[in-house]
Design a protein that fits this description.
By secondary structure, the chain is of the alpha+beta class. The protein folds into two domains: 1-44, no CATH class; 45-177, no CATH class. It is 42% helix and 14% strand. The protein contains eight helices and six strands. The protein has helices at residues 6-11, 16-22, 46-57, 65-71, 114-124, 128-140, 146-155, 162-172; strands at residues 3-5, 30-33, 36-38, 62-64, 82-87, 98-103. The strands form two sheets. It has a three-stranded antiparallel beta sheet. Helix 4 runs antiparallel to helix 5, helix 5 packs across helix 7 and helix 6 (128-140) crosses helix 8 (162-172). The radius of gyration is 19 Å and the shape is elongated. The N and C termini lie far apart (45 Å).
């Protein structure tokens, strides 16, 4: 892959001088995140940004939010930032490319399940209509039930859950989904 950590590049024999030289503006490489380099010029693809975010957070990182839902097959536009979960004891900071969230409830896989990913995405989306659309799309696609989403909301942090809770109440009154909420 064309994404490497600076630690891996240094271990492979690239000197700091050469790394800095290649990552200069107009150079053949670019620093995507602190300690993460794209070994190509031009704008990074979404897949490259996702890989860079996971490398940046390191061992135990898990992709969540809209990017995880895209991995699970939902056709959604990519958000501004890649949403990554990190172990509670780690303190990586986010920036304009990556939203890093600490959690004691890390998924076992490197990609969160659709239920967790949907709740994380909804909690961090500032648009109430988009939150409702996102949750409805996950339910309509059969990736989660309203009950599973409600249970996940209850298990996680309370911050940012008022609108998703209201959206789930609204979804549970839809006749076509009423059977899925029991």
């Amino acid at each position: 892959m064309d994404i490497r950590t600076t630690t891996a590049l240094l271990a492979a024999g690239v000197t700091r001088y050469m790394l800095d030289l290649r990552c200069r503006p107009g150079g053949p490489w670019q620093r995507l995140l602190p300690g993460v380099v794209l070994l190509a010029g031009g704008p990074p693809t979404r897949d490259q940004l996702v890989r860079a975010a996971l490398l940046y957070v390191g061992v135990g990182a898990a992709l969540t939010g809209v990017d995880a839902l895209r991995v699970h097959g939902l056709d959604l536009p990519p958000p501004d930032r890649v949403h990554v979960l990190q172990p509670a004891g780690r303190r990586r900071a986010g920036n304009h490319r990556v939203l890093v969230e600490r959690t004691t409830r890390l998924p076992l896989a490197t990609v969160a399940c659709p239920v967790r990913a949907a709740v994380d995405a909804a909690r961090h989306d500032p648009d109430p209509l988009h939150q409702h659309y996102l949750l409805a799309k996950v339910v309509d696609a059969g990736l989660a039930t309203v009950t599973e989403l409600r249970t996940e909301l209850e298990a996680g942090p309370r911050r940012g859950t008022a609108v998703p809770r209201a959206a789930l109440r609204s979804l549970s009154t839809r006749p076509d989904l009423r059977a899925m909420t029991r």
